[in-house]
Protein: Histidine acid phosphatase
Amino acid sequence: MVSLIFGLLGVAPSIVSALTPLQSFYPPNLNDTSYITDLSLGTYGGTYQSPTREPNTTLPYGSYDYCQMPHPRVREYPLPEAVRNGSVKANIVYLEYLQRHQRRTPYNILPGGENQPYDCDDILPYLYAGPASGEGPLPVYAQTYTDITNPFVLGYVNGSCQFPQLTIGGLLDGYQHGKDIWAVYGAKLGLIPIIPEKEKVWFRSTESPLTQQSAGGVLRGVWPAWPGALPLHQQTSAVDTVNEGFSCSNRGTVLSAIESTAEWNEHLNVTANLRSELGSMFGATSSDWQDTFDHFSDNFQGRLCNGYKLPCDFSDTSKCVSMEQANEVFRAGDWEWNYYWRTNPKVQEYIQLVQGVFIGEILSHFQAIIDGKTSLVYSHIFVHDGDIGPVLGALGITQLRWPAMASNIAFEIWRTEGRESALFARVLYCGQPVETIHGTLDWLPLESLIAILKPYVPTDIVSLCNA
Ligand SMILES: *[C@@H]1O[C@H](CO)[C@@H](O)[C@H](O)[C@H]1NC(C)=O
Ligand SMILES: *[C@@H]1O[C@H](CO)[C@@H](O)[C@H](O)[C@H]1NC(C)=O
Ligand SMILES: *[C@@H]1O[C@H](CO)[C@@H](O)[C@H](O)[C@H]1NC(C)=O
Ligand SMILES: *[C@@H]1O[C@H](CO)[C@@H](O)[C@H](O)[C@H]1NC(C)=O
Ligand SMILES: *[C@@H]1O[C@H](CO)[C@@H](O)[C@H](O)[C@H]1NC(C)=O
Structure:
């Protein structure tokens, strides 16, 4: 049995434990369902556990860390190889930075409720509006509480959190994330301005408080002393080009087709026991919980990433989810993400439908640099896993594990010096040049990067959505 598994995957457990941080992002057999079922793979060199406030420092910098993905950090920041070895002289002229929000409580509460309280008293979600000029409001914040006379609490969850909401660990990691961005792109490379001048910097989020609150944390890290407020751009949520804002019927049609293929069914087939064990433990037998691994993954990640334990059966507290079961859920989630954004037979159309308009917006930022029509040097966009995944898919990432909390893509644009001055690009995923089917995107003409992404921008999204 063991040798059969080795034969299928070509990866022995001892090799898994010896993975480099970068290798933990790229399991070579992620597209095979044996990646899901091979218990010896564990977390494939990553972690899904963190104390409530601090990062988990067990793994070396750069490893896949679901709770707080690595980001560019000055100590490890690699200059493009061509610049480092002196074969070209170049300066960075633009940074387009995308990130998933920081860590949070789960979206999905188990059908029978949660067997432990969630505590969010150590983070204050501010919510107030002020006039553009005149007297400012009194700053109020959300204080979630549980009223024990509310009979529905028993079958839901006790405590002081909303689901989802940013947690203190996520906010604090956001500060660090911003400090590290400043250290690389401000202090070291001199790109980000010392104060957030409106002509040079631009920020965007989705309508979700998770992304807005992440922005407040990260940008405080970038500009610790800035006394004012900053605009965080958003499109109207009903037509937003991120977070599946605009409605698009063909998107659902294509998704159903993707989730009906033989490969998809095989991944359900090999996980039938796991799904049935978890389903009966929690009454999670509806299609919402059974048809994909989204909900179980989310529920377990939300707990483990914020210092809590895996859930137990309400009626029999001796029956709890094991770490082995959770790891299999996480591997199945990784398989699904790779399938959605890399290997399904309709992947190009699916990326166009979900993220194509947004990718077009990014390309228009690049075009403005080429045309010399912008003074911007730094754009930072706070989005969701469902936005990061398709962008990585469009880049042709060789393997795509679930883009975890605070996962980030840095599109850097460099201009070479001298008479033959030209624009080059590189793309970092969580601090390292991304590995793709087009090679490592460490240094390529900006036009080549545009050519990679362009096929994912639909020429007519309205017709495509109605197709
Ligand atoms: C997985 O990817 C490899 C290399 O890209 C390919 O050779 C193989 O056929 C794929 N396997 C499946 C099951 O799709
Ligand atoms: C840190 O991660 C390691 C590896 O996944 C795990 O064994 C450990 O329990 C984690 N520590 C905490 C405090 O969550
Ligand atoms: C420097 O790095 C670039 C990009 O990897 C490579 O093409 C070039 O040959 C290298 N030059 C030297 C002198 O090592
Ligand atoms: C909720 O949790 C608090 C603190 O742990 C506890 O005192 C209270 O009894 C719990 N209420 C319910 C309804 O479980
Ligand atoms: C799983 O595989 C078996 C045997 O090949 C097949 O009979 C069954 O229909 C499959 N189930 C699913 C859910 O694909």
